[in-house]
Amino acid sequence: MKIKLNNMTLVTSSGLFKKHLLIENGIVKRVSDKPILSRFVDVTIDDKDLLVFPGFFDMHVHLREPGYEYREDIESGMRAAVNGGITGIACMANTNPVNDNAAITHFIKCRSEQTGLPVSVYPVSAITKGLKGEQIVEMGDLKTAGAVAFSDDGFPVENSEILRRALEYAKSFDMPIICHSEEKSLSKDGQINEGVISTKLGLKGIPRESEIIGIFRDITLAKLTKSRIHIAHVSTKEGVDLIRKAKRAGIAVSCETCPHYFHLTEEDVLGYNTFAKVNPPLRTYEDVLAIREGLRDGTIDVIASDHAPHHIDEKDLEFEKANFGMIGLETLLPLTLELVRQGVIDFKDLAEKLSRKPRMILGIKPAVIKEGEEANLTIVDPHYEWVLTKENICSKSFNTPFLGKTMKGKAVYIIKGGQFFEINK
How many Cβ atoms sit within 10 Å of the Cβ of residue 321? Predict the structure, then answer.
């Protein structure tokens, strides 16, 4: 297949460039300052309003298969990724059975390849068997099977000695540990952020110190072991400050946040809105400002969705009984574009945090727009306005507080290898 892209703005971590591209058999054959004139092409796109990014990557996704296919399966999760303009995802280990052995990792890889969709799926293995925090998995076998990182996401590894040994073991394979940083003795049975709103609603609160203490412990162990650590879903001002100081001290720490932590606050739970029940919980406006500043100054490396689909029967319950989590693959891009429009980050930062940096952290070759390289592109209409509805969600689930909201910006095409995929508006 030959694809001609004329009058496009290429957006990379290093800048914005007005270019014209020719893609042939999945390879970028030409990047030109002048329009491509070749007539014998299969697809021509000529639109000065479109932006071409290196394919987006979401490093924190729950695909639910095996075991919870009624919430999401690998194919439906990949379709949601495509709908969001995402060409690569890393999926967490809290399946049933848990992805703590080479057989499950191999199954996820094979199942994803069978779909034929233009999304690469990279399994994240558990740190400990059964996510129980007791026995470290066989990391070497899992790396060979295709795992790119280790995480007990959903649970912290509470035993510091075990986490220390896991960090040392992962270091020998040059793979990161992704930490769900939480002090469970403080957050046990908590439902939302501890404060005025939790008191008003009569719900047990989760103090911010639960995350702060967890991040401090995890960073301290990374310093001790001189190992790479990645802090998932940062939600607090103090958490951002700790990571900023650790980076300045030369500790090998990276981190991510999610759109709900820079757009929503604990007040979005008012009315007992279970779609806004997440872990870590939505925090205060002060925390939102701190998260935004962490994104602006580069403290926060990655924006990820923490896509966590649940069946409606697991959300349409009394608040205390409802599951934590919201979907996010299909809203990751427009919610991040909103930061660009607000001047928090620029387009280069967006390319860095949604494409290059997550792949770098996981040891995956970044997508680049360069002659001779595989075409891995997300083409975006930043001005397109649309409303998020149940009908235009490709995930099996629709548990998101952004349902019914107007979004601005959408991926319209994906080009990955020899595949050209037009995304429905």
Answer: 9
Active site residues: 306
AA identity, residue 105:
T
3-state secondary structure of 226: coil
Segments of 13-161 assigned E as strands: 15-24, 27-32, 43-46, 51-54, 56-61, 86-91, 120-125, 149-151
Pairing of strands 2-12, 51-54: parallel
Cα angle for residues 363, 89, 215 (degrees, 5° grid): 65
56-361: CATH number: 3.20.20.140
CB 10 within 8 A of CB 376: no
Nearest to 414 by CA among 125, 85, 9: 85
Fold agreement (2-52+371-385+407-422, 56-361)? no
Domain boundaries, the chain: 2-52+371-385+407-422, 56-361
Q: Which CATH architecture has domain 2-52+371-385+407-422?
A: Roll (2.30)
Closest by alpha carbon to 16, among 50, 66, 57, 58? 50
pLDDT, tens digit (0-9, with 9 covering 90-100), for 86-122: 999 999 999 999 999 999 999 999 999 999 999 999 9
Question: Do residues 266 and 281 make contact, with C-beta atoms less than 8 angstroms apart?
Answer: yes
**Burial 168-185, CB ≥16 within 10 A → b, else e:** ebbbeeebbbbbbbbbee
Is the entire prediction scored with pTM above 0.70? yes
